[in-house]
Design goal:
The protein is mainly alpha-helical. It contains 18 helices and 3 strands. Strands 2-1-3 form a 3-stranded antiparallel beta sheet.
Length: about 425
């Protein structure tokens, strides 16, 4: 006898879930049907959203694979919305995919759609076909489609999924629009500083050398760095590239990612923006999974791998263990000390009333408004802050260059002796 995790609704529409023993999946479905329940989902307890832990090499290869095969979120949003519309209009999934493949402009995604259509013709379900493309369809996407197939509400799930992806894309766009300007300025600052060391400092170094005068320590350091950059351009580039690769590998490690993500959350203003964005995504994901009938343990496992922040992932993982041991969802999240009181209160109320999915959707809207508020505040602060940063960096280099000129008389007299 195997264990089967189920999510059902009774005659009054109340949602409940649990585990029952049966020899096969069909037998488990028969038992639930005889009880008069409406089945939302049934799956073996041996199945999970994720299996095992990836090594560092696996993470690197997965990142490369996703970079090579992945498509933009906008493309996925548009595809999901069109698929939902076509399927709701009465077209079969196979026909819908064939039509979408003909009109798709992205060559990479066109191949994916053609492969999906081929796999469905072979007898695969839509979720099974999508599982073959992890760079395009993440586990959350596949799990929601699978829940819709089992419950017979695929058209509804696709509509909800399209709306969910649109919300996530909107939040991501707002966050990146807020970060685009400072990233551009910092890159421009790096180019300016490099130009000073590569072109300007060597000119002054030649002038100072002709005086044969003793130079201040900071100026000597600046000239030494400049000489290294000028004489070792390729080597300097390789050092920068190696540093970037080292940081990338460090971030892929569990400890490195946790430390970097923790630092980001603690960073003034930016940390608040990222935290509100994560909580919005967490709430929105939790809500759509619950409303689609995904079991609570699978929901927590999927949410853990969707929030994309190691600190929050660790908190969800701890909460999932506590829920398995008998804690309430709100109680488990509270013990982690990561989630804000507003969200915890809404989860607790949702557990009591049975409307957790609706209250989590409200929580997502609340955090989305906070994101807008922080972005407005960040926009007003970022310009003067960046001006100060540029003034400090460029000013320091210029002062270092001109430091000997402040003692020009002494330098000339020393050179004439």
């Amino acid at each position: 006898m195997s264990g089967f995790q189920f999510v059902i609704k009774d005659a009054k529409g109340a949602r409940s879930e649990g585990v029952l023993k049966a020899a096969t999946l069909d037998e488990a479905i028969d038992k639930l049907t005889k009880e008069g329940a409406t089945i939302i989902s049934v799956k073996s307890t041996g199945e999970g959203a994720f299996k095992g832990k990836l090594s560092l090499f696996d993470k690197v290869m997965l990142s490369i694979y996703k970079l090579r095969t992945g498509v933009g979120l906008k493309i996925l949003v548009f595809f999901t919305r069109q698929l939902a519309t076509m399927f709701s209009a009465g077209l079969t999934i196979e026909k819908s995919l064939t039509n979408l493949a003909k009109e798709e402009r992205s060559k990479k995604f066109k191949k994916v759609l053609e492969k999906l259509s081929t796999d469905i013709k072979k007898g695969f379900s839509l979720s099974e076909a999508m599982e073959q493309h992890p760079g395009v369809f993440n586990p959350l996407y596949v799990s929601l489609v699978k829940a819709g197939e089992i419950s017979g509400t695929l058209h509804t799930v696709l509509d909800e999924l399209a709306e969910y992806l649109e919300k996530i894309e909107d939040i991501r766009r707002k966050v990146w629009s807020a970060l685009a300007y400072p990233i551009f300025i910092l890159c421009f600052l790096a180019i300016v500083v490099w130009g000073l060391f590569y072109f300007i400092i060597p000119m002054f170094a030649g002038v100072y050398e002709s005086f044969n005068a003793e130079l201040p320590g900071p100026t000597l350091v600046a000239i030494a760095v400049s000489n290294f950059i000028v004489n070792n351009v390729f080597f300097a580039f390789m050092i920068v590239l190696s540093a970037v690769m080292a940081f990338f590998l460090f971030y892929l490690s569990d400890k490195g990612r946790y430390l970097v993500d923790k630092f980001i959350l603690k960073f003034p203003v930016l940390g608040t923006l990222m935290n509100n964005s994560i909580m919005s995504k967490f709430s929105r994901t939790f809500s759509i999974l619950m409303s689609s009938g995904v079991p609570i343990m699978d929901t927590l496992e999927l949410v853990e791998n969707v929030v994309q922040n190691a600190v929050v992932e660790s908190a969800v993982r701890k909460a999932r263990i506590m829920v398995r041991e008998g804690y309430s969802v709100a109680g488990a999240f509270k013990k982690t000390g990561v989630f804000p009181p507003t969200l915890l209160q809404l989860i607790a109320t949702g557990e009591e009333t049975g409307d957790m999915d609706k209250l989590l959707a409200k929580a997502a809207q609340f955090f989305e408004k906070l994101v807008d508020s922080v972005i407005d505040r960040l926009t007003s602060l970022i310009e003067p802050i960046l001006i100060i940063i540029m003034a400090v960096f460029v000013g320091s280099v210029i002062i270092t260059i001109y430091l000997p000129i402040f003692k020009l008389g002494l330098a000339i007299s020393s050179g004439m002796k």
